[in-house]
Specification:
disordered C terminus; 29% helix; alpha+beta; eight-stranded mixed beta sheet; CobZ; 22 strands; FAD/NAD(P)-binding domain; 2 domains; FAD; six-stranded mixed beta sheet; oxidoreductase activity
Length: 484
């Protein structure tokens, strides 16, 4: 029998599998996707948010625990478990050496539009390179890896993991029969339900015209995170945490693919201009805070607008101050022309831009700091980086909500144990998106998802290995007692 079964194939699952193997356990990892799509949402990541008290290898200056905590507190609005959040924060300062040991490489500090060289360590080659490094290390360590192996249900006995059920599958090599896989302990790291359109519909509901808001959502990440395992655990009485409508949701290019668009579909010029809805009206402060801290609120903001669509509007002064998008935006030499190209009502759109321009109070524009360029007497205000949109050509980008991962998940503690009626399971653990809602009740800040997955993946792996040793010892003691 396998000591530790890890269900999932992204960063958290791999961290758990590697830690369990290092602790001496035999490990099998089940990845739902084919090999070429392995890695879940982690393949689309770029960086890890890291606490550090002073300059460290690829990190500049300092990013102390309290500042990290305050950043997290701000974006979550207090919807976070401080004990678990601080556990993640502290763990983020100690993991890079271990990551390097397993082949992960970090690139020199970045400067420019992202402003995160102080807070985030970037992976050389991005998330795909990180995932490939972990899989290479796992193979070298003798971890059994199974692709095309989605788990449809978990067998439990009084909160104890017994076995996982993998359904029959039609694959290129023929039909794979259904399987029942037993293990002494298990780590759940199979992601959220962001690719389950029916579940998203249930969570977000319909408008008065019977339209489903979720039908206008795009999925930034993997199509394989359908939440089947999460629903199974919740139906079996696992303690839940989080709101099903809360997610890491970003405003992305409306022309992005339905799945796996990743980071490159993000539109990063929001703070340099204005955003209007389909009625041509502004609806939120575009200059509230630095983009890496506030970019993740915009998907949810757009989701709350008519038709779940918005439009980011800039002029030529903004060009060069943000990461250029993959697809060119609509371009025009007048505001009227831009409105027509975007399909917006000309009168209300032009009026909104003119009102914004008139309200701008220019100071010293500096996109690297919270500058003094702001609006006055305008609702909603723009509190920083407010400059008139008056220098053609003008550019417009249609935005849709892009769901990265959902926050409804399994409640846990500092041991990563799944809980049933408040009681921790002795051999079932959870990591990654399936428990991120313990730390992220709402909101997001760049790189913190990888911090959570790395911290709890490593904890879950150690705990699962220890639980498997206990189960093995108990089994042997039982056999010895029977023989004697």
């Amino acid at each position: 029998m396998i000591d530790v079964l890890v269900i999932g194939g992204g960063n958290a699952a791999l961290c758990a599998a590697l830690m369990a193997r290092e602790a001496g356990a035999s490990v099998m990892l089940l990845e739902a996707s084919p090999r070429q799509w392995r890695g879940g949402n982690s393949q689309h990541t770029r960086n890890l948010r890291c606490m550090h008290e002073g300059p460290q290898d690829v990190l500049v200056d300092a990013y102390p625990e309290e500042e990290f905590w305050q950043d997290l507190l701000k974006v979550t609005g207090g919807a976070t478990d401080e004990k678990l959040a601080r556990l993640v924060i502290r763990a983020s300062s100690k993991c890079r050496g271990w990551m390097r040991k397993h082949g992960v490489r970090f690139q020199p500090p970045l400067s420019g539009a992202l402003h995160v060289a102080r807070t985030n360590a970037f992976f050389m080659g991005g998330g795909k390179a990180l995932i490939n490094a972990y899989y290479r290390s796992a193979e070298q360590l003798g971890i059994q890896i199974r692709y095309d192996s989605p788990v449809e249900a978990i067998e439990l006995h009084d909160g104890r993991f017994v076995a996982a059920r993998v359904p029959a599958r039609d694959l290129d090599g023929g039909r794979r029969p259904a399987e029942r896989i037993e293990a002494r302990s298990c780590v759940l790291a199979a992601g959220g339900f962001e690719s389950n359109r029916d579940w998203l519909r249930d969570a977000w509901g319909q408008n008065e015209r019977g339209e489903w808001a979720a039908d206008n959502f795009l999925i930034r990440g993997t199509r394989f995170n359908t939440g089947v395992l999460l629903r199974d655990l919740l139906e079996q009485g696992a303690d839940a945490i989080g709101d099903p409508t809360q997610a890491h949701m970003v405003a992305i290019d409306a022309r992005a693919p339905l799945y796996d668009g990743g980071i490159c579909t993000r539109i990063d010029c929001v703070s340099l201009g204005v955003v209007v809805n389909r009625d041509g009206e502004r609806f939120y402060d575009e200059g509230e805070d630095f983009w890496p801290k506030r970019y993740a609120i915009w998907g949810r903001l757009v989701a709350g607008q008519p038709g779940q669509i918005g439009y980011s509007i800039i002029d030529s002064k903004a060009v060069g101050h943000f990461m250029p998008p993959v697809f060119p935006g609509e371009q025009a030499h007048s505001l009227d022309e831009l409105a027509r190209k975007l399909g917006l009502p000309e009168a209300s759109f032009v009026q909104a831009i003119q009102a914004y321009n008139a309200a701008c109070r220019l100071g010293t524009f500096d996109h690297t700091v919270l500058d003094d360029c702001h609006t006055e007497g305008l609702v909603p205000a723009k509190t920083h980086w407010a400059r008139p949109i008056d220098t053609p050509p003008y550019f417009g980008y249609a935005l849709r909500p892009g769901v990265t991962f959902t926050y409804l998940g399994l409640k846990t503690d500092d041991t990563a144990a799944v809980r049933f009626g408040g009681k921790p399971s002795p051999n079932l653990f959870v990591a990654g998106e399936m428990m991120a809602g313990n730390v992220l009740g709402q909101g997001y800040t760049a790189g913190v998802g990888m911090s959570i997955g790395t911290a709890f993946g490593r904890i879950a792996g150690v705990q699962a290995a220890a639980a498997s040793r206990g189960a093995h010892s108990s089994h042997n003691r039982g056999k010895h007692h029977a023989i004697s």
